[in-house]
Fold these 4 entries.
Entry 1:
Amino acid sequence: MSLSPPTTGERLPPAGGPPPGHGADRFGLDARRAGVPGDGRDRAAGRHPAGSAAALGARVARPETTVLVVDAVPGHRGAAIEIAAVATLVSHLGVRASTADGRDALDEVRRTQPRAVVLVLHPSPEARGRHDLWAETWEAPARLTGALVQGGTDVIALSMWASAAALAWCVEEGALGVMHVDQLPGVLGTVLARPATRHPHTGAHAHRSGERAPLPPPFHTLVRLTASERHVLFHMTEGRSAAEIASALVVSVSTVRSHIRAVLRKLQVTTQLAAVAIANGIHPEDLAAPPLP
Amino acid sequence: MHPPGVGPAEAPGTGTGGILVLEPYPPLDAAPCLAVASVVLAARQLGSTVMVADLCRAVDSTRHAPPMVAIVALHGPTAHATCTPERDCWELGARITAELDALGVEVVALDMGAGAGAVAACTARGAFGLLSLDDLGGTLARIAAAGQDHPPGARTGGVGHPGAHHRPRRTRLERRRLPAPFDGLEALTGAERRVLQYLMAGHSTAEIADALVVSLSTVRSHVRSILRKLQVPSQLAAVAVATGTRPGPEAPAAAAGRGSLLRRRASDQPALATGTLPAGAPATGRQPAHALRGAAGRNDTAFSHGEPDAPPWRSGPGLLVR
């Protein structure tokens, strides 16, 4: 299987099966891996993500293909390194990658007409405990997704340990949600393998609403919340009681309680703790049952 | 197009004075997690020799090439690495921090999404705590500067590490403490940390009692002491503190521009806001990592180098607070 030359000067993973350490190659890390004798053995155990870089390289290595990597929460935290790392990962898949700030994303998309946008959601330490910033960290990515999808661009929303709620709302707006970066190569491959059908008049990619993929359970339940319920859920993740939420939102406590009940019902949980865990993107089974030492 | 600092790997250095980036969910699979890769990129931008290992192999790795600093990139579980007992990054992080600390390797616990609780588990054992990758440059510069103040050979701790005699003497007073809620998080016992992790995953006290095979009243008493130590009224608030979304009682939201790293000693609190950003940088907003390059020395006033001869027990958890 032959690959087109990589457009970025980076090494492409060799086709024909992942050799040990192929994943490290994509970051140029192999030469720097701490030299512990024999540490390559257990890596050959085959625990590679389904869409491994080598498998994908054959499918998507088209030099003209461009993907725009967008910082979904700009201005709060210099996530430049994470964005650069995602762009590097994408470029190692043989796809031309460029980066943009969320605020410039729409202009950049119009200018460069990328094949897809990878919207990177990340936690924002500055927004912690600041209600006034919640809309930007939780809602801005969804708004941007909506605008991009309306314009006919394929959007992949990637959560770099941001809240699952923010990711779910991007999915609601038509993005493909990726909860772990390990799954990005596979999803990107799926998106890029599709024919780039453009609208005959506008030139925009046709919107494929039928191809939305829900988030894995239990996070798929996050998409059905109303705006008020999202507000309440956000305050719950910050540990506020119903009374505190009521005073923050300037509504009555009973209104807040009814919103909380609605959130719990829609998330199919019985406690606020469980609802917050889902919003934070923590799967109950992420924690196996360890015995106490 | 081509992200800075992502060129082909340079020739491996001697390793001494380099940076060891640790993946918290061992064993390190073929693909290092992107969080780890991000840290590697950031560290390379700072011009350092960078190595990667997972927490299980951290100590072995230092034998081959003793690093100056080990960075634990505390990210959440990935798709194929959940938090099993062997992979519990809170406990592993704490244990490895203590081991590396004993070997004279400075440990930086960096929150990449695992939450404040995971960071606190490490800082309780002597690690530096960092809430944002942005602050990495300044922190590494300070650690390096502190290493130069204590030339090689000055180390007195007789730890049986092959590279120990090369190591600069540890400067304990450089230890930082994270904002107020971390006081409580650092003070948690192992059992309380475990219960808090279950609460974060949304489990009820009854489910925790089942999972840990202890009585309900034991779990309840752990929960009570968690709430007391974190000074919060509810389990929901305790989870928010452990996730890092709730500011502590002494760190009001008004301190938004606050530094992500604070001093370990309460008496040094005034220095906290100056310790994170280069001089003249805005307190909030984007702070590209490369802007921090060469920040060494500019913020030296934020440090005190006092008590260099503090006995080893001074770095223990009991000393942390107050």
Note: The domain at 183-243 of chain B is CATH 1.10.10.10 (Arc Repressor Mutant, subunit A).
Entry 2:
Amino acid sequence: MDWLHRHRGTIPYLLLLPGLAWLALFFLVPTYYLANTSLQTGSLDVGYAFTWAWENYSDAISTYHEQFARSLEYAAIATVLALLVSYPLAYFIAFRGGRWKSLLLLLIIAPFFVTYLIRTLAWQTILSDSGFVVNTLQTIGLLGEGERLLATSTAVVAGITYNFLPFMALPLYVSLEQIDPRLIEAAEDLYASKARAFLRVTLPLSLPGVFAGTLLTFIPAAGDFINAELLGTPRQSMIGNVIQSKFLVLTDYGQAAALSFVLMAAILVLIAIYTRVLGTERMGV
Amino acid sequence: MAFVRRHVLTAYALLAFTYLLLPIAVVIAFSFNDPLGRFNYTWEGFTLRHWQDPFGPPGLKQAIMASVQIAVLASIVATILGTLIALALVRYGFRGRGATNLLIFLPMTTPEIVMGASLLALFLNLGVATGFWTIFIAHVMFCISFVVVTVKARLVGFDRHLEEAAMDLGANPYATFGRVTLPLIAPGIAAGGLLAFALSIDDFVITLFNAGPTITFPLYVWGAARVGVPPQVNVIGTMIFLLAAGLMIVNVLTQIRRSKGAT
């Protein structure tokens, strides 16, 4: 105890040490090894060696630029769709939920209580060729005879949207719930129409939620490969599918690591641009 | 007009909730299906057979055991490490706070596939064989940040006068921590631990990269997806869903009752 008194300044470091050491060893150090691996060449038979193999990057990009573009495209579409579905839903819970708010929120995160893979497999069942969704769409003529939903890009985007929707809805709800309803009343007392009050008061105040939600949805969506694997075909394959198979099936570690790095860099650049654009937009409001 | 608007929004919310819950209904319904072949896609008839024999398919029981063991171990370790970090961040001023926050924040925003690939690169380069313990290491790693955030939220609203009172009444720092601080922040720690458990037992991507020959429940489902998923997977999925949903509903209902009692 005396020791503790004399060394009060070291207590926070002692508390931090084990946890931060774990994160340093198994989060930061692995990033170095990923970078190192991305410049290695070799194969499982002859072994792998560090050779400054920058061609891993150029080869990876020239061979797989299509999958890269598709990943970013699918993730962007899914993020916008998730925003369109969740905004009214979060608005409903925040302003109309009353004392059932927490139970309604529970319904939003309910999909998380079913294992990721199992809920994606459920979409396989729902969208399957003999399922009721395809049957209904064919009856009302939105889908031609013999056309299908499963194994199309529609199915993959729908799956991604569904799986990451709660990441969008929860931050939206938090920012909408914090808005003082009296601000909206004040706007209406000052003769703003409902629509105008929404556009000039509610929407700007909810932008932090939109911002957090888009990032939380887009980042995991861009790296996803499960939806493309279970709901699509190789024609819908995303960069995650390539990284996964190169690492775990083809043992082409160099290119797999290079692809992981490019994915990470692409996401960081997009986030930086997005933060810029939304940041100035908010100042203009 | 207001009447119409009100109901348009309600109808929209109902539709959105249907969309969110439809796959869950499908998972539950197909746990009672009696499929003709290996593929459990179309409704063929009602049966209780799979519920009577949930661990029937070979390897399923071992996979669930592995998942539970890893989740228990990883959530305990992550909860301890994360709680210590949260205590340091809320209770003490120290140099390097910004760097600490960044190191906590980064794992939550890195795509899982990149974290899984990086860890595998580490293990490959160091010649560590992947398996049960590498999964454990990975799960502790990505759970710590979520525990820190959860416990911190509870610590911020903590009344430090209670600790001072205990000290004034002659309690030493250890007794104060054990008898006052810990019981008060216990709900936050429990919430962090449960979140870590849930994240660990559901993790697929990072696990796939670092599993070696070990098969967890999500990896079992992944393997089965290519050759036809046995309906027992739906049974287990339903059980996990009911357990998690039950816990959450009890939690929410006690909160609602408590807030009603307070007013």
Note: The two ends of chain B are 34 Å apart (CA to CA).
Entry 3:
Amino acid sequence: MKHTITLNVNGQKYTVDVEPQEKLLDVLRDKLDITSPKKGCEMGECGACTVIMNGKAVNSCLVLAVESQDAVITTVEALHADGKLHPLQQAFIDAGAVQCGFCTPGMIMSAKALLDTNPTPTEMEIKEAIAGNFCRCTGYKPIVDAIQSAAAVMKKEGA
Amino acid sequence: MIMSSFDYLKPSSLEEASKLLLENKNSRILAGGTDLLIRMRGGEVKPEKVIDIKNIAGLHEITWEDGRLVLGAAVTWTRIKEDAKIAEHFPALTQASAEFGCYDVRNRATIGGNIANAAPGSECGSPLLIYNADVIVYGPSGERSIPIDQVWLAPGRTNLAEGEFITKVSIPLYPASTKSAYRRISRVEGQDLATCAIAVMISNPEEIAAREVRIALSAVSKTPMRAAELESFLSGKAIDGETINFCKSWMHRNLYPRASSLRGTPEYKKIVLGNLLEDILREFGVLAGELI
Amino acid sequence: MKQAETGKKAWRNDAYSKVTGQAEYCDDLKVHGMAHAVPVYSSEVHAEIISIETEEARSFPGVLSVITAGDIPGEIRYGQIYKDYHMLADDRIRFNGDVIAIVVAQKREQAVAAAKLVRLNAKPLPPLLDPEEALKDGASLVHEDHIFEGKSCNITNHHKIRRGNVSAAFKECDFVIERKFNTQYIEHSYLEPESGLCIPRYDGVMEVMGSMQHPFSTRRFVAAILGAKLSDVEVRSVAVGGGFGGKDDTAALVCARAALAAKILNKPVKMTYDREWSFRESYKRHPYIIYYKMGIKNGKIHAAEVKIIADSGAYCSVTPWVTWRSTVQCCGPYEVEHVHCDTYGVYTNNVFTGAMRGFGSPQLNFAIEQLVDIAAEKLGISPVEFRKQNMLRQGSTTITGQVLDTHTVSLDQVFEETLKRMDYESKLAKCSRGRADENSDELYGTGLALSYRGMSLGAEGMDFNSAIINVQPDGSILLEAAIHENGQGAESAFILIAAGELGTSVDRIRYRQPSTSNIPDGGTTVASRGTIMGGGAVVTATRELKRKLAMALCCRLSCNPGDIRFFNDRIYGKTDDVFLTYEQAVHEMYLQQEIPYAFGVFKAPKVSWDEETGKGNAYFTWVYGCQAVELTVNRKTGKVKLLNMTAAHEVGRAINMPMILGQIYGGMAMGAGYGLMEEVKVKDGIIQNTNFNTYKIPRAADLPEMQAIVIENGDPLSPSGAKGIGEPANELMAPAIANAVYNATGIRYYSSPLKITVENENNNK
């Protein structure tokens, strides 16, 4: 039984037909061509598919697409919508937090969800916030550094 | 990718949900989905109907009424973790919430779902057991309450009747002097199932004669379990090195963890649970005298 | 010595596209009319195939084809060294990850559903799972047609070192330590599973895009399965989500099977692996059994007798190369007079094993660096002192007879820097050694490990690389080298090297999207050889370009060719007021009918090896590293808490410092996983943990503060001065942890990962 759902992704409203067994991740990637959320494990373990759904970071592989009726979804594509990089994106570049890049979109979304609610996180809070996101390249240190420096930049810009 | 097809249903009332459950023998309740979707992907469960209860009013509430904390079944672990009042009254539950999954998973996973999965090492298991929680279910004959120690039958199996589903968890408040804690061991920090876990509660810690001790263990049996024999052994008496050693040897004699676990050997779990119990009792300040 | 400055902003050519989500990995690509292929496995571990029934699967809705070995137009069997891997199983199932068929359908879910309908009729055979059993005479044969040294057996290779006379030497020793070590299977855990997209092109070429770390190896596999010429296959690069050595054979096989389907159906076919398939089929790090006998005389390691057995699993892959490095480095960075080493690779019916970051050294280092600590303790001296008495220095001779005099031997530098940064010796004195403070259950320990590592392939194989630099009419520059970007930052390093040589900004240089049809095969991107070999070729090409530019422009700049200078993004004559922009320079060249284009080759300096004696100059240069760790072990729970990890590595010349630091941090993290938590569990030949819910790799919260010290000693034999860092960073943390755990608990663990036991107080009573 197909469902027609309407959802807002990155500020754009989409109406799309989905089968119940389709996951949000599949619909974003295959039907809306938003490919920054990656498929790494499909078990909610690796975090490569992390998106922000109604203000909360979630694994889009653990959400049925039909559950996202009326949802507001943000992926990393939206962060530089005006052509200017988000402080997190710039900080990831500057801190060397990007190597293979497969974790990067999910990692940035987890970081954004954290900073949206906690603009001045401690190192431990950052590590906890990205505990659901694997990175096999960097040992996480440059990523934690990047999130810290983005927080500082955002605080300054906001002030 | 989920290979089996199913219908997605989203009832807006308890009655409707129960009716759907009853009408469809092969159906599953969907709350957070962090466990169900994984099992459906793995083909372990192939429901024909998936009944999403998140649209039902009241299941998202956290309320304090008549000396009890009532958590709606669809309350997420993030909300439990961030609730200061829960931390004040039910520290073991808050400690469990901090260990539960990771940030992303806690944002979806629910208390009701965690109970319904009936996993031997479920995070909610030991805390709810020591607090004598009641699980409120709704079904064809209306609402009923099941004491938590009667909810789980075996891995993945609960005591719910056909057409019934979990709507709330109700936990009695305890006097302020009551102490409780949860400890678990896992292989990695952040997002790992418990290798084993323990929750302990002590009422009247200051008055030895009136002291009541409750102990619950996870991931050592088919379901999370109360250690009744240990509880009566420890209740109402002074606890010292000798007592602790009895507890440790009790673990050895009475626990039979699954040998095939990828997470820890039976021997390891038994020793560690004894050590964690000792740690908690020491932290509570009820351990007298020096230990060997 | 120059100690590098850290704290510089990072630069990568692909960082912008990766932080904005624009970078496309193979599975992100869609092509019109594309079909989806999936593999079919069987439940068998070892079995004789009687028949494979595909009718039911073929009739499943949406299924376009079910392909088995009989449909292969080219070679069924292929491999990097031995052609022993049947790309689709033909006669036998040799391990549980063998693919018996591929199902192609319009939609991926249709293919997955239909795959369950393929039936295998097979006669189960007893599996051979113990490598030591497999070595014995009379063991059943994994490959009946395999012959080694004239006889049918399961041995893939036997490497030897015969130095001095060990049996006589042991008699002279003050004491001898004998230990057995076991290391585990681990999974690379690249975050992106394997994927390949193959498109039959209008010109008859099969175009391949995929997640791989060696496009040329992929091209050989694809050409073999299709029965095509190498020129009929073009492998193009897309962003790769990590490799760590793991995206060679299996990644190439995935592309080859997709190409086979594309050829048969004459339409684009994508094959993307689920994590479970990747775990099940892809090769792992070799588990080793190491028998080690170390003799000490007058405080020196006098003799070592080593027997190494590496489980190659069902296929050979690169086992002979992996185990060769283990052999060459079997005594660690120490001078040892008498060495007898026998290293065997052996076939079993387990999952096959191959290249993984470290390539045969992490296993040996786990043994050696613990043995060195054991020896020091027996001598009653500090492990620091013992290492200083034994370590390789400038002009030392290695166990293969190579004299280390062509580069700066910086072992003492990395060691001293680590000791200083950690305040190691005072921390060593504070270790618990099994006794906690009264008020704590935490046992404190610190440990370290040292290594040296031969750079690039050494005598494993032919070692050379090429680069092309091509200045465009507007002065912009296209650069490429025959090294592959796996995510490590190879392209960025080459741009930085070329920009440094040409005195231009990095913005002037674009890295050309690589293709196997652009540039000659430069060998695989393994062995930490990317920067040293590819960078060497880039330097050669840029110098050739500069020579051409100088010859053509000297008249215009009124000077001799030798006077021309390249800096400030311009080309200058003798004085700073006489210059040309790159655009002007190209215009001038064109007027002279000269093309501003250069091809450069870097050939590795000569190495040597004698298979019978293990003598030779195994590698043309070496790097040196030291890693240390502080940790606590909870005596009540056995939980290890890492407090600090510190590394010092000599890298030759540093090209892109933030990326070097990233390699070091990532290497330490992966090493910590190897030491403490990672293990592919195999039961009766079947992998038990096939996704990240049961295979645990370190998460952010598992890792402590990390410090990295980078030491630069430009290498005269490397044109760019650079050496490498990828693998050295990943070969030391596990033994450092093992030593620290010993210093904390007083208990030695001879198997990785360390399974820390807890004190059993009941038994004490």
Note: The radius of gyration of chain C is 27 Å.
Entry 4:
Amino acid sequence: MTTFLLRRIALTLPTLFFVSVLIFGLQQLLPGDPALALAGENQDPAVIAYLHQKYHLDRPILVRYALWVQGVLQGDLGESIRIKRPVLDLIREKLPVTAELASLALVIALAIGVPVGIIAAVKHDTAVDYGATMAALWGLSIPNFWLGILMILLFSVEWGLLPASGFVAPGESLKQNLLTLVMPAFVLGNAIAAVMMRHTRSAMLQVLSADYIRTARAKGLGELRVILRHALHNALVPVVTLGALEFGQLLSGAVLTEQVFTIPGFGKLIVDAVFSRDYAVVQGVVLCTAMAYIALNLLADVAYVLINPRLRP
Amino acid sequence: MTAETFDAIAIGADRGERPWHRTMRRLVKRRAALVGLVVVVFFIMLSTLAPIVSPYDPLATSWAMVRKPPSMVHLFGTDEIGRDILARIIWGGRASLMAGIVSVSLALVIGVPIGLLTGYAGGIVDGTIMRLIDAMLAIPFLILAIALAAFLGPNLTNAMIAIGVSQMPVFVRLTRGQVLSVKHEDYIEAARAVGNPDRRIVLRHILPNIIPPLLVQATLAIAAAIIAEASLSFLGLGQQPPNPSWGSMLNTAKNFIQQAPWMAIWPGLAIFGLVLSLNLFGDGLRDALDPKADS
């Protein structure tokens, strides 16, 4: 197990290296003098000279890369030009908002996707199965920002049930917090629910035709017990690990959802940064998402081996 | 044995039926996939014939017709500066379809050769390139596209480049996996034994055999690219005003949701309809191309 873990961790090192090269390389896409672009609206020569010095723009690119990585490793992601604060602080401030939204979305996705997937598999090739499969395809094809607008139209404008936008911190009022987040979380969870449903359905179909399920039935167990205890238990392994890979989808979706519902999270941070040409913030956000993805992938792989004894070395 | 007859033996011989015919026969049986295809063709025709079928100039504003609900004069209503929404939907389809086709072509043109190379060469070439691909896959698709669009500058061309580059890793992975799975098949070994050079083996023997999964993935990738273009335009990073695009129309519509809800209905319905149809067609194509499925 230890060797597996060490080998798996060693494998992420080159990936991390290339991620850093890619993100550093983004700067090179800027036309002309990066200092001019980084200075934004402010074209003061003193500021530009300061930026030249701060980012070592007069040094060779390899030296600049090394200095940048050195900073990142010490937790220095640069400074936001717009808000004049360290990027890391901004990320720390916005991350909990998106994390709450994403967790709620994941709960909704699991609560819809897994049961529907089980029912579709059990009722394989019936109208119920076709209906569920079709619903999943709808869920995957509907752009989530449009779904968000439609929900605002229905629940806020027409019926006045839920707030159309904004965010209240859970510490301030948990009830208000959940009221503002229920629509965005549903919108974000919708597409993931569709993916979960597909995974659960195919995993259950595979498991249900296995010999040990026939054995369980043969020894006279009730159908419900066979499905929930014996089949689901094994079918959930790939569903859970594949779920970890939906993290990217969840974050991409959060960017759009936060924009629709004006929620001050991670996604809003990167979009606002793009428009104010706040490149250090863009780089910081991309770096954090990539590292989170790599870490989650690692955890999913390890969990997969831990849960599945056949894969244990 | 010449290489040509060898190809014929390797590919054909399924009860005398050509794979292409078998695929078509199976596809026709799938009602949903056919409906999808018809809708996609409809959208393609609508946007190619935009100058003829569009009822109005998509850029013509009219202060007398600001935010008018759907009527016989303006079937889909008008927007916040009096432009006809139907005309903008028809012309906006061009941005969506072009983004879908151009970015996926870009992803294919870069991704497939890299996948062929890494899969066939193996060793250190494979190891290095795949770690780079892993790094690209570690950045969520839309976040990577946003970052690229941010540094390249916001416009439709850069959005298409950003989407294409972000989709490329998927095609590298798929191509590589397919190459690895057919690389040691008997017919490849045979082709090598006859003395074919590597280039010929890869292009004439491996590539034709891995086209079906690539075709399916490309169809589904076009659907994803269309959503991605709409997303970037919705965020203001794609098609720039006043040129129409479904995503940017929704972005404006969001601000008038109370006064003019129809502004938000049509562009979303268009994206949804086109993407759903492409997904239906892609799913049907996958089933029809699957050689293991019973016919």
Note: Chain A touches chain B through 53 residues (CB under 8 Å).
